[in-house]
Amino acid sequence: MALAERQAKSTVRENNVLRNQLIHENLPYVKRIVHRIATHLPSSVDIDDLMNAGIIGLIEAIERYDPTRDNKFITYAVFRIKGAVLSELRSQDFLSRSARRKLRELENAFVRLEQKLGREVDDEEVATEMNLSLDKFYQIKRMASISFVSFDDIGCSTKEEKEHLMNFLMSNENKDALAITRLKEIEAGVAKAIDQLSKKEKLVISLYYWDEMTMKEIGRVLEITESRVSQIHAQAIMHLRVILKKEGLINS
Question: In whole angstroms, what separates CA 181 from the centre of its chain?
Answer without folding.
Answer: 21
